[in-house]
Amino acid sequence: MTAATADWLSTATGAWTLDPAATTISLRTKAMWLLDVKATFKALEGSGTVSPEGIVTGTLVVDASSVDTGNAKRDKHLLTEDFFEVGAHPAITYTAKSAVPAADGTWTVAGSLTIRGKPLPLNLSATAAQSDPDRVTVTAEAAVDRSLWGMTWRKMGAGLHNEIVVIAVFRK
Q1: What is the distance between the alpha carbons of residues 85 and 88, in angstroms, rounded to a whole number?
Q2: Torsion over CA of 67, 94, 128 and 30, rounded to 10 degrees?
Q3: What is the pLDDT of residues 41-57, one digit of tens each?
Q4: Alpha carbon distance 98, 109 (integer Å)
Q5: Which of 88, 142, 157, 165 has the most C-beta neighbours closer than 10 Å?
Q6: In 44-80, which positions are buried (b, 16+ CB within 10 angstroms) versus exposed (e)?
Q7: Can you give the C-alpha Rg of the chain in angstroms?
Q8: How far is the C-alpha of 126 from the C-alpha of 105, rounded, in Å?
Q9: Can you tell me the distance from the alpha carbon of 46 to that of 60, in angstroms, rounded to the nearest whole number?
Q10: 92: how many CB neighbours lie within 10 A of its CB?
Q11: CB of 37 within 8 A of CB of 28?
Q12: What is each CA distance from 76 to 67, 68, 101, 131, in whole angstroms?
């Protein structure tokens, strides 16, 4: 751990609460051969803790029904049992169990992503920027295979692999 990271952890120690209005969650996938489909989601709630020992944990809860691709028909289909099955599983949850800093300033966040009630391990590559003592922005990225959560419906060359980008703002 670098000295800068140790200094940051000492000032970040404590409980943090997600600012849903300042948080963005996006997803990108290939559909119909080479076309990108982009979606956004709304965060419902989240929290994080940095212990005095530098252990970082947290949770982010996403409203699965808030998916917005800019196409109402597609959005409606994404709510069904072919995809998010929001009637039975209204939330998508990421639980961070630990975050380990790397020498280059990034973090590896180990945790699990729960979609459709099924938690699976998912590590994220993340950065953290503290603009003031009471605000931190965590940017995280991950590649996921949606078929692991039982979302295998495909049409005309649509991909099963998705890229997720989260820009989460937490306040002390």
Answers
A1: 6
A2: -40
A3: 998 999 999 998 888 99
A4: 6
A5: 142
A6: bebebebeeebebbbebbbbbebbebeeeeeeeebbe
A7: 17
A8: 9
A9: 4
A10: 24
A11: yes
A12: 9, 9, 40, 38
Contact 46, 168 (CB under 8 A): yes
Amino acid at 18: L
pTM over 0.85, yes/no: yes
Q: Identify the residue whose tokens are 């670098």.
A: 2
Please give the single-letter amino acid code of residue 24: T
- The model's pLDDT over 71-84, given as tens digits with 9 standing for 90+, comes to 999 999 999 999 99
Give the C-alpha separation, 37 to 78, whole Å: 12
Calpha distance 90→64 (Å, rounded): 5
Q: Where are the beta strands (DSSP E) in the chain?
A: 14-18, 24-31, 35-50, 56-68, 91-101, 107-115, 118-132, 135-145, 161-171
Tokens representing 89?
């599983």
